[in-house]
# Entry
Amino acid sequence: MPAMNRHDLEKFISGFARFQQHHYGDDPALINELRQGQHPRTLLIGCCDSRVDPGYMIGAEPGDIFVSRNVGNLVPPCSPDDGGFHGVSAAIQFALQNIKVERIIILGHAQCGGIRALMCPEPQHSDEPDFVRRWMNIAEPAKRSTQAKFHDASIEVQCRACEQSSILNSLNNLMTFPWVKEAVKEERLTVHGWYFDLAAGELLAYSDRTGVFLPMVCALEQSGPDKRLARATTP
# Structure
């Protein structure tokens, strides 16, 4: 095994040892509570991107959030008869029916590889299945609206706009699930669209009132090319 891989494994094992010592040794109260079952009030649907770990980002403790992660943080429309496998749909159903969460957050982010693959698809050179392309087709409405509105903009601006539009597309798809629609109607559930600006270190949320993403946690004061890029790519 290469030395780098051994170092990674050692880091992960040491990390678990620290987790074990804290939660099972020094302060076992939380684990004792979680042994009785899980009762998170939030379902968070996020991206697989290694830079966007939702629990780490928001300081969640074990048991705080029920998480479903996928490429592009997408929610497909409810389609029980299409014969496919439905991991995200199953997570939504379980969260609503079994856990009875009170809110759903869709967490998108800047520099999303899934969205870039959607906006700049690579040509297929073989008959091998392309699962990424097929999955990202869920966000095709976001791509079309982005290209119509920002057709003269740079690809960086288009990708950022599509990242945010895709969150709205997934929020719309959420409402096609009967458990979600009923819970929202009865005011037992709220749904939220969040966007993490990776370059600026800023967290934004979609505002129904204004129709745009507004900062919830503003970027720290900084200067230099990263800040200028963040401003330049704001749709």
